Amino acid sequence: MQNLLTDIATAAASNPDKGSVATYIPELADIDPKQFGISVALANGDVFCAGDADTPFSIQSVSKVFALALALGHVGDQLWNRVGREPSGLSFDSILLLEREDGIPRNPFINAGALVTTDTYLSGSSPREALAALLRFMRAAADDDSIHINEDVAKSEIATGHRNFSLAHYLASHGNMRNPVDKVLGTYCHQCAVEMSCRQLALAGRFLVDSPAMPTLVSFERRRRINALMMTCGHYDGSGDFAFRVGMPGKSGVGGGILVISPGRAAIAVWSPGLNRYGNSKLGTEAMESFAHSTGWSVFGVPHPG
Amino acid sequence: MQNLLTDIATAAASNPDKGSVATYIPELADIDPKQFGISVALANGDVFCAGDADTPFSIQSVSKVFALALALGHVGDQLWNRVGREPSGLSFDSILLLEREDGIPRNPFINAGALVTTDTYLSGSSPREALAALLRFMRAAADDDSIHINEDVAKSEIATGHRNFSLAHYLASHGNMRNPVDKVLGTYCHQCAVEMSCRQLALAGRFLVDSPAMPTLVSFERRRRINALMMTCGHYDGSGDFAFRVGMPGKSGVGGGILVISPGRAAIAVWSPGLNRYGNSKLGTEAMESFAHSTGWSVFGVPHPG
Amino acid sequence: MQNLLTDIATAAASNPDKGSVATYIPELADIDPKQFGISVALANGDVFCAGDADTPFSIQSVSKVFALALALGHVGDQLWNRVGREPSGLSFDSILLLEREDGIPRNPFINAGALVTTDTYLSGSSPREALAALLRFMRAAADDDSIHINEDVAKSEIATGHRNFSLAHYLASHGNMRNPVDKVLGTYCHQCAVEMSCRQLALAGRFLVDSPAMPTLVSFERRRRINALMMTCGHYDGSGDFAFRVGMPGKSGVGGGILVISPGRAAIAVWSPGLNRYGNSKLGTEAMESFAHSTGWSVFGVPHPG
Amino acid sequence: MQNLLTDIATAAASNPDKGSVATYIPELADIDPKQFGISVALANGDVFCAGDADTPFSIQSVSKVFALALALGHVGDQLWNRVGREPSGLSFDSILLLEREDGIPRNPFINAGALVTTDTYLSGSSPREALAALLRFMRAAADDDSIHINEDVAKSEIATGHRNFSLAHYLASHGNMRNPVDKVLGTYCHQCAVEMSCRQLALAGRFLVDSPAMPTLVSFERRRRINALMMTCGHYDGSGDFAFRVGMPGKSGVGGGILVISPGRAAIAVWSPGLNRYGNSKLGTEAMESFAHSTGWSVFGVPHPG
Fold first, then answer.
1. CB contact (8 A) between residue B89 and residue A84
2. ∠ CA D232-D234-D238, rounded to 5°
3. Where is substrate bound in this sequence (chains A, B, C, D) (predicted)?
4. What does the pLDDT look like over C87-115, one tens digit per residue?
5. For residue A96, what pLDDT is reported?
6. Which D residues 100-119 touch C at CB under 8 Å?
């Protein structure tokens, strides 16, 4: 495993086409695109790393996985009355289908759906309390209390996030926001601004793996379903492509991170800031394709764990 | 396994809400909605059946899986220049995204994409020859030479299939049809009119399972990818829901059949003519949810084969 | 003319189907739907009235005509770089085409386009100053200093106008807002909350008529063009129907008012709070159809002024 | 008038940017783009011409105006149950709104709506008879029996018109085609292949003018309404722009012809094969803008006929 990760990191370093760093969040626009890290946290507790695996980055939309688990913990399957479970076929911030479908977002991993998720776990508490609960969940999963929110990134997103404000007001106009729009958006932008390294993210991701080495944070049934959503919806309108090439459930963020789950085996975190045309990490996706090919961990292949 | 299937068939028989039989294909409108069959063909060659598992039905869009394998055998990955690999987020016969995306269908499992697939495996031969090759493939997979095409259903679909004619001409207007439209549609309607029983379909589906009990018809890599496409796109705009509830790749047909793959373990065929709102078999979907729950065969759970 | 208006008002009073009062603006939901007024201000200065022609009502989107004139006065044809001149084919608050067309609203008479108009005439001044300029323009046109803004309606719209906030943030996300979103929306909601009676609105509308009885407020060329926009875009996705039935340029508001122009002859204002399915006054539209039939003032008929 | 037309033709000849000739109809792709003709047929019977006003060209979609009059003559206002009266906001051959609106085309001047119109006047007769009736109507209006159909153009359009076949089958799938699709398309393509010179088209267009110099072919009410439809829908998604710049009802064709009506005054035909981005004649549109400016014939200006 260590050799595989080292080879993948070496290949990434020598790849001249690193994609384009997202520029619409000013605080992220200056990131050095040459960085690349990868970590694998096995179910048995072992962790393997290569490249810049200990450099913290903004996990952005990868946070939607943790937020979904938290929201389901609050209201259970009632969440599905307010958000769907289908791929959207459109980009992460599209508002098109919202109009066709009366303000019910397609799934919890596009921005509109994630705003409903945030609105759900926020319910009945202050943004500070809700974010504290989210961090508690992440820290417990990773067994690492140093995971934190980057306030500058959060503020930058609040100041420039007109598209998210547009989506939230649209949801509110359809009665699909319970809390004041500004409060939900403030919480949402802080949630996106959580920072982790690959090592931390892989460790935190084990709550979806069924790992005997850590306490159970969500039930088997719920874990299975979150993994299913990551497979069909985790990469926006590049979800089908990721399933085709990698064959494992994953969730990407515009900061260049991807969390991938191999059920029963491991959580993998990969990070490289340059994005492909779907808004997913370019080198990260290629690294995962190579990783899946070498390990045979695609859920669509033969299920004999190594 | 036999007990499980018998229980599932019994539960289906006593469920009063059997969905609605598709009426837009006249030849299928008169089917008795009370029928239900299920078959499991294990990788080792064993087959288990319950209910009306030996009654032939029109496999309709389930044929798209076999057609895709055949087309990939002809042109390989060049197929992906003409058809995408993403969920469409819309119904099976939608023309909306075609207009947004210059005549490139979203995936090979919606009608527009399947027409491109048919156009591909048809290339360079007559419809009769192409359909003979398709039947040869299906018969070899199922090891059953009695699989055939229902000519009456094919003719009925040709006579009433204005939506498919519309899609095909639309593709042609974008230069994404190589053969004459009428020839492609004739072949396509015959392909959809293949009849199989659950037993036959489960056996035929093993080509996606990695079964040592049968010859390899497609490479491991291609099998894995077809399974991925079935997971993200196999149930139209209900694909996410099927992944969420069942957690295995599957492909449904408007005749009420569903083929489901448990990689390395088994192919499962279920059939009941009544459809849910997405156009997928209602009892069939519920039966597969129950089956997945009992067996733990979701690819998103722990991958220890029974 | 007086007899015609009296007949029309009588017919409206006896029509049992008065449409549905808009409920999404709380302050307007309680209006008595039985009210109906009509006024004709001839080019020569004569005014004829019938029904509740002196009852003030919320002109709502009719204000977009005055706002457009004001914005064109500020920046001239540069406005057309930020907003189109085509019918949208969709409802007044749709966000669909904005996504297809990179944040350029279809025309200045749908909400998104009107927000750009407000942003334009607001530029370089405070909301208070900008609204004062708008009122000055309206009062000068009507020669009536009592025209005012209903603060309660404005506040109600700001508190509940999530759809407009969504549109404005969407425009801002495409760089098509120069002023802060909150400032534009505050101004916009006040602009919509202007109150006039039919008599006042007909008088004010004469600036589009070419009336020798009043000073010229906008050039002939601009007047002609604003009238053209009212014809093709003045009634949202009911614009074609209004042109077909009435044949004169007009602009409707969700408060039930319609301003109609007969070039060279007269400005007509009609008001009845109940709306048809396009969001335009039901009795108002029918009254204008009857008026056009009786007068022969359709611009598509023979152009011999009475 | 003669001097004005000569000046306009001279200006057109010296304009280096003549737009792009439509290439999707092979028979039209070879037309010399330098040609330009204009004719004005006054209500009193006088005709003025300049440029290539006697060169026949393919009127293409301008035929939709005559087809609409013929269809309304057959079924009257029942036509409006099968086709709308609203601008589509999309290009001439879009299929998008058909899907949103259950197979009811937006208006009779986009291709989908014109197919319904053809289906309507075809009803109960052979294509040969129906086309003979259409030619009789055009010849009577122009008082010229030499108007004819170019068979080569018709055949070329049938052979390559996949988009129209797609639209027609789509309509049929919604039950909005009464005749067999092939029959309607054959008739439609012949209708589009009518050839006229500017002189002939201007003369034929007088049936919409209210000209005492010719027999009344359609009632005043119907004429007024057809003019309204030409204003709001006559130039596809460039209709608003044409109304804004020219201010008279008009209908364009992809062959480069435009028929414009000045109610009570004249019919104007202009032709130049190069198209602008909306698919309307570029020089033709500019010539009409100049013509409207010089004559003051905009219906949105002061209605004092010269």
1. no
2. 80
3. 61, 111, 157, 164, 188, 236, 254
4. 887 666 676 667 667 789 999 999 999 99
5. 67
6. 106-107
Q: B97 touching A, CB under 8 A?
A: yes
CA pair distance C169, C167, nearest whole angstrom: 6
pLDDT tens string B140-160:
999 999 999 999 999 999 988
Q: For residue B111, say whether it is annotated as part of any ligand binding site.
A: yes
What does the pLDDT profile of chain B (306 residues) look like in tens digits?
999 999 999 999 999 999 999 887 888 888 999 999 999 999 999 999 999 999 999 999 999 999 999 999 999 999 999 999 998 876 666 766 676 677 899 999 999 999 999 999 998 899 999 999 999 999 999 999 999 999 999 999 998 899 999 999 999 999 999 999 999 999 999 999 999 999 999 999 999 998 787 888 899 899 999 999 999 999 988 999 999 999 999 999 999 999 999 999 999 999 999 999 889 999 999 999 999 999 999 999 874 443
Q: How far is it, in rounded angstroms, from Cα A93 to Cα B274?
A: 36
Name the amino acid, one letter, at C88. Answer: S
Q: What is the CATH number of domain C61-194?
A: 3.40.710.10
Using a CB–CB cutoff of 8 Å, tell me whether A140 touches chain C: no
Amino acid at C226: I
User: Subunits touching A (CB < 8 Å, at least 3 pairs)?
Assistant: B, C
Residue D253, token pair as written in the block? 């064709």
Q: Write down which chains contact chain B via at least 3 CB pairs under 8 A.
A: A, D
B2-60+195-295 CATH pick, 3.40.50.1580, 3.90.550.10, 3.40.930.10, 3.40.710.10? 3.40.710.10
Helices within chain A (DSSP H only): 2-14, 63-75, 96-100, 111-122, 127-142, 151-160, 162-173, 181-192, 198-205, 220-233, 239-245, 282-295
Q: Which CATH number is D2-58+196-295's, of 3.10.20.30, 3.60.20.10, 3.40.50.20, 3.40.710.10?
A: 3.40.710.10
Sequence-ordered strand ranges (E) for chain B: 20-21, 37-42, 47-51, 57-58, 148-149, 194-196, 250-252, 257-262, 266-271, 274-275
Query: Residues, chain B, total?
Result: 306
pTM of the full structure: 0.92
CB contact under 8 A, C239 and D232: yes
CA distance A286 to A280: 11
Q: Tell whether B304 is within 8 A of chain D (Cβ).
A: no
A254 is in an annotated binding site: yes
Please name the amino acid found at residue A178. R
Domain range annotation of chain D: 2-58+196-295, 61-194
Interatomic CA distance for residues A100 and C96, integer angstroms:
9
Do C166 and A163 lie within an 8 Å CB cutoff? Answer: no
- Which architecture, in CATH terms, is A63-193? 3-Layer(aba) Sandwich (3.40)
Question: B2-60+195-295 with B62-194: one CATH topology?
Answer: yes
| Residues found in chain A | 306
Matching CATH number, C2-60+196-295, of 3.40.50.720, 1.25.40.10, 3.40.462.20, 3.40.710.10: 3.40.710.10
| Euclidean distance between CA atoms A58 and A196, whole angstroms | 7
Identify each DSSP E strand in chain C by its residue range: 20-21, 37-42, 47-51, 57-58, 148-149, 194-196, 250-252, 257-262, 266-271, 274-275
- CATH architecture, domain defined by B62-194: 3-Layer(aba) Sandwich (3.40)
Q: Are D290 and D298 in contact (CB under 8 A)?
A: no
Alpha-carbon span D61 to D235, nearest angstrom? 10
Give the span between the Cα atoms of B292 and B297, in whole angstroms: 5
Give every CB contact of residue D101 below 8 A, 6+ residues apart in sequence: D84
Let me know if A99 is exposed, middle or buried by CB neighbors in 10 A (0-12, 13-18, 19+): middle
